[in-house]
Design goal:
9 helices, 79% helix, 173 residues, 0% strand, mainly alpha, single chain, globular
Length: 173
């Protein structure tokens, strides 16, 4: 499987999740009722709900790597992009909708396309702390005041995280 070559970073988390799933399955089975079957049915339903989103997120990530010219990536968010790359990453992360099944494949696609570490960290950080797509619901549930205070409290985090990430990444080179 040529496409998996060099991608062994998924093996350890997969083994951990498999062991945990097996242990939980046998704990549920030991309870004596059919809750282990109910748990498997719930898992199947969740898989069927999330699978289309995962497929399209991976398609987007893969296409980003092939459609965005390497020169553009290098110029705008590559190794020498500095603060410009961090700002672009932060803004892109803030407007990226959905959960980690959407944002993390996009971040991986950017990384594989040549984006620098600061851009990737700014993207992930802004997606998690800004998440502009979540603002209407947040305002509706906890109010504009709490939402505004939260946003003002975290406004600089993606930029700071990106700058720190670039510095740390240089230590590993």
């Amino acid at each position: 499987m040529k496409f998996l070559k060099g991608k062994s970073n998924m093996i350890i988390p997969t083994i951990i999740m498999a062991v945990l799933a097996i242990v939980l399955f046998f704990i549920a089975k030991s309870k004596g009722s059919d809750i282990h079957i109910v748990g498997l049915k719930n898992a199947l339903m969740l898989t069927l709900q999330v699978l289309p989103l995962l497929i399209f997120a991976f398609i987007i990530a893969g296409l980003m790597q092939t459609l965005i010219p390497k020169q553009a990536v290098s110029h705008w968010i590559g190794a020498d992009s500095g603060l410009r790359g961090i700002v672009i990453g932060a803004l892109a992360g803030g407007i990226t909708p959905g959960g980690p099944y959407v944002s993390l494949p996009i971040a991986a696609g950017l990384l594989n396309s040549g984006a620098n570490m600061g851009t990737i960290i700014a993207f992930i950080t802004s997606w998690s702390v800004w998440s502009f797509s979540r603002l209407p619901m947040e305002i509706a549930i906890i109010g504009w005041k709490v939402t505004l205070i939260r946003l003002l409290s975290v406004i600089f985090m993606p930029f700071l995280a990106g700058i720190i990430a670039n510095y740390i990444a240089q230590l590993f080179e």
